[in-house]
Amino acid sequence: MKSHAQAVVIGGGVVGCSVLYHLTKAGWKDVVLIERSELTSGSTWHAAGGFHTLNGDPNVAKLQAYTIGLYKEIEEISGQSCGLHLTGGLQLAGNTERLEWLKMAKARGRYLGMELDIISPKEAKDLLPLIDESHFVGALWDPIEGHLDPSGTTHAYAKSARIGGAEIVLRNRVTDLTQNPDGTWTVVTDQGTIHAEHVVNCGGLWAREVGRMVGLELPVLAMEHMYVLTEDMPEVAEINQVTGKEVVHAIDFEGEIYIRQERGGMLMGTYEKACRPWSPRQAPWEFGQELLVPDLERIAPSLEVGFSHFPAFEHAGIKQIINGPFTFAPDGNPLVGPVRGLRNFWCACAVMAGFSQGGGVGLALSNWMVDGDPGFDVWAMDVARFGDWATLGYTNAKVQENYSRRFSIRFPNEELPAARPVQTTALYDTLRAQGAVMGDSWGLETPLWFAPEGVEPRDIVSFRRSNDFEHVKAEVMAVRQGVGVTEIANFAKYEITGPGAEAWLSGLMTNRMPRTGRIVLTPMLNENGKLIGDFTIAKLSDERFMMFGSSQAQVYHMRWFEQHLPTDGSVAIEALGMGLVGLSIAGPKARDVLAVLTDEDITSKAFPFMAFREMDLAAVPTMVGRITYTGDLGYEIWVAPEYERRLYQTIMAAGATHGIVNFGMRALLSMRLEKNFPTWFRELRPIYGPFEAGLERFVDLSKNDFIGRERAAKEKDAPTLKRVTFVVDVDDADVIGDEPIWHDGAVVGWVTSGGYGHFVDASLAQGYIPAGLANGASDGNGAFEIEIIGERRPATIQPEPLFDPEGLRMRG
Ligand SMILES: Cc1cc2nc3c(=O)[nH]c(=O)nc-3n(C[C@H](O)[C@H](O)[C@H](O)COP(=O)(O)OP(=O)(O)OC[C@H]3O[C@@H](n4cnc5c(N)ncnc54)[C@H](O)[C@@H]3O)c2cc1C
Asked: CA gyration radius for the chain?
């Protein structure tokens, strides 16, 4: 084993071998993979080997498509077969809601270039004669689905990596990792130490334990997973003989099972409700290439449904039951990327679908390590998407919830209960007592809407408008016609101080920094000129700035900020987390309410739109910005948590004469739609540029240099895409996000978000279409359509916000 390497990859499962291969492909030859035992000896060797492209996140789906396309390449380079069986697969719907869900998946597949089909139960039976079609109402057919040989595939990656110059060291455990003062790593192994520039955690079943070597508690947990292998079945032989093909794959959501052919018999795997974690606190290092004891009783309910839906299984003999562990993050997506605060420590773990995702994970991570950017939108897989609240206990509860719901529908208005509430503010009980229906906003309970007296504070989950519709409408109307208050503790808040603060911010942000006492809105770009942030920045004094952004992206942004901080100590940035909370009051009466709380002059002249000031309100110290996301007259008030209750109560008392109401996130989001305002992670993501996103007002190419400036200047002259708002002609279902946008019979774009604009009484959708089309069609022609739950609905571009297009209300 060598003593120095540019990168050490820990773990020789399918993911570690893919990362190793991609690093060599990107030109890094001095790379070493260290494996505790043999290649595949973690969760990889006993996998069922299934692969598919479909994923809830279109960006992850693209990386899955890349993975599947890669197998031919590594077979050719290595001469090692991956044992591919491209059978195609069916997703079987047992009820109308599932069929609607599949129709939405098919629609999403359109702009990803996937050829998916919705078919009838009869057609499904023709493709898969093993089903009793009376249990199903329809199915989705995906021709790019199949299975492979897990061991052959891992070895194909490994051989290709070796050919590319990598070294692989087997039967050698990494026992410790220490970071040297220069940021490089000492990797301590059973066979000696290696000095490495970069370390990658591909520890799979032991990824959590490898994380602990550097003081990390990664949100990852292994779950037991079982599949049953049958003896040879005559029905299988018959299908093979008649069709000349293998039996196609299938997922049966009602039974929580998947099936595929395995030699002359079948394989049936389950995601059972009564699931069980493996080694919830500490994975044993001595666990070898072993299987766990099967527990048929646990999966019996699933098998029972399976036997009735696939009757031939009933009399098939069971040859073997495989029970093996594999890992999940709380949301089921991988944990990939650099870890905040640990220079050159990378993760590629919690990959629960290694044969669909392993290639894409390897590509994104190697791009990131070699070029400094993953090259794709990998937010859904970014290790930075969880905060400190994702503790061991949280992770264990959420992973079990996610596993047991693997084949359940997640509705757009569905909040999942496990491990909640985690974080609450001082107002939690007060708001709940007033009917607040709470949602999880990056681990914080946040009011979504308020049920009036006599109405149960509960969402009825649906793809269509639901029981909250009229109540959210009432909140929006009350704000637009009077005044409302909402909690905004869930925003991210940062304080930036020091003599270098302004210059540093200006070098990161596209907009000019504000004058003292003022606010600016500003995007932040990466080197490629793509959007990686969107902030509100206020200047309190020459050396003190407040910054507000997306809560979900706090770790993601802090990772970036810390990477770019000057080393001379001239700038300090602190993420304030729940150390600062906030309330927003909005509506034409907002100033009247605020005036009761202070003696200061808050007339529009003295405290205009986009002003920011420290002031006492209700006798407590606050910071107030004259801005709200509602696009109405309003204020955002920031306060230390110990004062929040008093502030809220005083606002409610002061607002009583104006009929003040509580409003939740759903009303807030409806109002921002009426103003065509974008949201972070929907309209604003690292696949879009600032001009494409319509943020040109906040990009000043003539100020000092800033990251991404050159690329942004190019984009300004020739944007590829354009964000637009549509008014959609709908029945009872508004867009959710990710629907295809049609124009003249072809899919030309996709929806990013939308919903109902309650005040303007219109169903609204935002999305991206080719820039040329947006300009050409800005006269509002009606040739666009948006596909909502399988139906193409007429959509018209709405270039101006429907509510207050001149911004008179917010400036008033
Ligand atoms: C029963 C079952 C069925 C499955 N079916 C499918 C399927 O159909 N399709 C699919 O895509 N996925 C399936 N999976 C999941 C799939 O197995 C995983 O996604 C995949 O194995 C993850 O690979 P990995 O490389 O991340 O982890 P692992 O395979 O666990 O590899 C990690 C490696 O790291 C090594 N390691 C850990 N710590 C150290 C250390 N300190 N020093 C040195 N080496 C170390 C381990 O020995 C191990 O070899 C299934 C899993 C199971 C259990």
From this structure: 27
